[in-house]
Design goal:
The protein has 370 residues and is of the alpha/beta class. Helix content is 38%, strand content 25%. The chain has twelve helices and 14 strands. Helix 10 packs across helix 12. One of its GO terms (molecular function) is nucleotide binding.
Length: 370
C-alpha cells in the first residue's frame, strides 16, 4: 500500500431495516474508497440473514454489546434502530470509542441530548446526525442567494404521500421482517410512554392525539425544522399551532406559524395517500422569491432544485431553475462524515444542534390551539 492511500473506515451497521437496505448499505458499498462494512447488527435474525447474503457481509450480531465486544474492526457505527433506542446505542458506541452516524431524530428528550453530548466530549468521537436535507447542495445555493437580503416571509411545507409509495419504487427490493424478540415490543412501548411524559409532563395523557403528534413532530417534522433552522436560525417563538383529528387519535395535518424578528414563517406538514413528495422552503425578500424543492430520498438520483424568481432591472420577470447536482444528499453526507472523522473537519449536525428540533417540537405542543 502506498503512503498516499486513503484510510478506509470500517463500518458497523446497527439496524438492518428499510433505510439501511435502501440507502445506507448500498451507498457505503459504492463508496468503497472511503468505507468498508465489516459487521451488521439487528434484533431480527431474518433481517441479518437477508443483508448478510445480499451485500456479502458475513459477520452479524443480534446484540450491540456483543458487536462492540468482538474483535471485528469498527471505526464508525451507523445507528439505524428504532428512535427510542438511539441515545442508548449512541452512548454505548461512543463509550467504546466508536464514531457515530445517527439517523434522525438523534434522541427523544432534552436530557438524552445532553447525555449524548457528554459522551461525545468525554470520548472525543464524532457524532454526526443524518439530517441529509441540510447537506443538499441546493440548500447552500439558497443561503447564498438570500444572504444580506431582508426577509419578508417564509413558507416551509412538507406534505408527502405515505412512504410506501416511494420505497416500493426504490429499486432496492427491500424486505420487512417481524421476527423480533417478544420483549422488544414491550420495551419500545414503555420507552414511548416514558419519553412522552418527560417531554410533555401533565399534558402527556390529556389528549389521545399527543403520542402520535409527538411522534410526527420528531420524525417527518424534524427534517423540516432542522432545514428551517439552517436557513433562518431559531425562531423567537411559536405563535400558533393547529393539528387535525382523524377520530382515531392521530393528527396527520399541521399548521404552524413561527415568529422571527421582522417576519413570520408559515409551516405546514402532513402525510396523506397521494404519491407526491411536496417538501420545500420558499423565502420571500422584497425583490425575489427563492425556493428549494426536495424530492423523495428513497429514489436515487432525483434532483433537488432551486427556483429563483425576481424582477430584472429592465422590468422583465425572471425565473431561473438551478440543479446544482444529481447526487443525492445521503451520498453527499459520506465524504463530509469521512472528513470529520479522519481529518477533524467541522460539521454542522452535532448533538446540541439536533437538540434544537426537540425544543421546537415542545414549542409547537405548547402553542397548540385545538
Amino acid at each position: 500500500m502506498s503512503s498516499n492511500a486513503q484510510k478506509i473506515l470500517n463500518v458497523a451497521i446497527i439496524g438492518c431495516g428499510e433505510v439501511a437496505q435502501i440507502a445506507h448499505i448500498p451507498n457505503l458499498i459504492v463508496a468503497s474508497d472511503l468505507y468498508k462494512i465489516t459487521a451488521l447488527c439487528d434484533i431480527s435474525v431474518q433481517s441479518l440473514e437477508l443483508c448478510s447474503k445480499r451485500f456479502g457481509i458475513p459477520d452479524t450480531f443480534t446484540s450491540v454489546t456483543d458487536l462492540l465486544a468482538s474483535s471485528i474492526p469498527v471505526d464508525v457505527v451507523f445507528i439505524l434502530t428504532a428512535d427510542q433506542f438511539h441515545a442508548e446505542h449512541i452512548i454505548q458506541c461512543a463509550n467504546a470509542g466508536k464514531h457515530i452516524m445517527i439517523e434522525k431524530p438523534m434522541a427523544q428528550t432534552l436530557r438524552e441530548y445532553d447525555l449524548v453530548e457528554e459522551a461525545r466530549v468525554k470520548n472525543g468521537v464524532v457524532i454526526f446526525v443524518g439530517y441529509m436535507r441540510r447537506y443538499a447542495t441546493a440548500l447552500e445555493r439558497l443561503k447564498e442567494e438570500i444572504e444580506g437580503k431582508e426577509i419578508r416571509y417564509v413558507r416551509v411545507r412538507d406534505i408527502i404521500g405515505n412512504n410506501k409509495y416511494f420505497t416500493s419504487q426504490s429499486g432496492q427490493y427491500q424486505q420487512y421482517f417481524t421476527d423480533h424478540p417478544s420483549a422488544s415490543a414491550a420495551e419500545l412501548h414503555k420507552r414511548i410512554k416514558a419519553n412522552l411524559a418527560e417531554n410533555l409532563g401533565d399534558k402527556a395523557e390529556s389528549d389521545k392525539r399527543n403520542a402520535h403528534s409527538w411522534s410526527l413532530l420528531h420524525s417527518l417534522a424534524s427534517h423540516d425544522l432542522s432545514a428551517m433552522r439552517d436557513v433562518l436560525g431559531m425562531p423567537e417563538r411559536c405563535l400558533y399551532a393547529s393539528r387535525s383529528d382523524d377520530g382515531e387519535g392521530k393528527s396527520w395535518w399541521w399548521n404552524v406559524i413561527w415568529g422571527y424578528k421582522g417576519f413570520k414563517c408559515y409551516y405546514e406538514m402532513a402525510i396523506d395517500e397521494v404519491a407526491v413528495f411536496d417538501a420545500h422552503i420558499e423565502v420571500y425578500t422584497n425583490d425575489s422569491r427563492v425556493k428549494i424543492q426536495y424530492d423523495t430520498p428513497y429514489v436515487k438520483g432525483l434532483p433537488i432544485k432551486l427556483t429563483i424568481q425576481k424582477q430584472l432591472p429592465s422590468g422583465d420577470f425572471s425565473e431561473q431553475v438551478v440543479r446544482p447536482t444529481y447526487v443525492d444528499p445521503y451520498t453527499l453526507e459520506l465524504p463530509l462524515l469521512y472528513d470529520a472523522i479522519v481529518h477533524g473537519k467541522e460539521y454542522k449536525t452535532k448533538p446540541l444542534d439536533a437538540k434544537n428540533d426537540t425544543i421546537l417540537a415542545k414549542m409547537v405542543m405548547a402553542a397548540l390551539v385545538d
